[in-house]
């Protein structure tokens, strides 16, 4: 591995990274309360995650997707703690793709983050020659539906 890859900007030693994920959180009508932000900051402060990118996009009624500067989101929520969180991983194509999931007239926050809590496990697996070949997420609604179905099965016996 080249020294450039080992010390990619903002990432440190690539071999030391935990799994990196992203989320796109839609805010209908561009209304953001900021209720989850203290929890996000706490996760960072406790070293559970490390944020690489924190970007907002807006999807206009005509379908145009544009990036929104944090300071342009209005005074309802203080996002100054996230200013400068940009690793360069996201480009306009990524923003457009995230925007395609939005309803017109809504905005979204896009967060790319490292699961630092899992880094020691990931390092151990890599040292042993293992590699991640698939990952996914189970939506809460699907989990609840499965649990309800399981409960009905046991109630019917």
Question: What do these coordinates show?
Answer:
By secondary structure, the protein is an alpha+beta fold. It has a domain of 95 residues. 30% of the residues lie in helices and 22% in strands. It contains five helices and six strands. The strands form two sheets. The protein has a four-stranded antiparallel β-sheet with strand order 3-6-4-5. The longest helix is centred in the last third of the chain and has 16 residues. The chain is globular and about 55 Å long. The termini are far apart. The N terminus is likely disordered.
Summarize the helices and strands and which ones pair or pack.
Elements: H1 3-6, E1 7-8, E2 12-13, E3 20-27, H2 37-45, E4 50-59, E5 65-68, H3 92-100, E6 107-114, H4 119-127, H5 140-155
Antiparallel strand pairs: 1-2, 3-6, 4-5, 4-6
């Amino acid at each position: 591995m080249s020294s450039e890859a080992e010390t990619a900007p903002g990432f440190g030693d690539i071999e030391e990274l935990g799994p990196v994920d992203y989320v796109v959180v839609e805010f209908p009508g561009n209304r953001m309360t900021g209720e989850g932000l203290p929890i996000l900051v706490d996760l960072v402060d406790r070293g559970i995650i490390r944020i690489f990118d924190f970007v907002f996009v807006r999807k206009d009624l005509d379908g145009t997707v544009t990036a929104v500067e944090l300071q342009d989101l209005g005074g309802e929520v203080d996002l100054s703690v996230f200013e400068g969180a940009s690793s360069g991983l996201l480009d306009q194509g990524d923003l457009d793709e995230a925007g395609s999931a939005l309803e017109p007239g809504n905005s979204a926050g896009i967060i790319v983050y490292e699961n630092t809590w899992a880094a020691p496990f990931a390092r151990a697996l890599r040292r042993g020659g293992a590699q991640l070949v698939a990952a996914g997420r189970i939506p809460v609604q699907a989990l609840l539906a499965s649990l309800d179905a399981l409960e009905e099965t046991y109630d019917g016996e």
